[in-house]
Amino acid sequence: MGVKEWIFAVTEAMLALVYPPRCPVCDEIVAFEDRGNVHPECRKKLFQITGPVCMKCGQPVDNARIEFCFDCGKKQHHYRQGKGVFLYKGDIKQTMYRFKYSNKREYAAFFAGVAAEQYTEWMLRIGAEVIVPVPMYRRKQKLRGYNQAEVFARELSRRTGIPYRTDLVSRTRDTKPQKNLNDTERKNNLKNAFHVSQDIVKYRYILLVDDIYTTGSTVDTIAQAVLQTGVIDIYSLSICIGKGI
Questions:
Q1: For burial by CB atoms within 10 Å, which of 32, 33, 82, 127 has the most?
Q2: What are the coiled-coil residue ranges (predicted)?
């Protein structure tokens, strides 16, 4: 364990004494030694993605004969392939809201644990060399205090051994929330919103992580910029996948 990781682990333990970890679903306290876990009854309320999925974005499809979901059948994506851990429906909507806006950073341990269990083999197969979180605009992140995608990336890195970096892709301007925009508006909203560091050329295969995937506009915009640097492929992993517009 490096110095940075040791400091993080000690800080995490100290914070847990003051702010005990909570179940990501019901938000009730769980034992410190069970941090990253969820109450068994609450776990049943989450819809983990299994079975046949879209070969592009990872969204569930009706049967294995269907290669692409309705959204991916209509458009081309710049990223190679995407995966998701949970469906964005039911109780997890409130979980994700708290994770994003209510400083429930401890939820990332649970998300990363499930993601690592389900997708570590896939990450190794695609040759992911670095995990990159979808960036927030610096001023917005300073106001919130953290970037939920970055917290998830850090926890995922701890469980998979794949390094993560937050300095490879940055957001150069603030953008409107994507959820109320149609596909065309989303693309315009994200135009010229990201900067890619030249240091990214050290890597050939990149895993981009975020909290929620809907239409893929954010992933596509970043992937398009990254691929122009000479990176071979970019993949996507999100905590949740929701229906696109």
A1: 82
A2: none
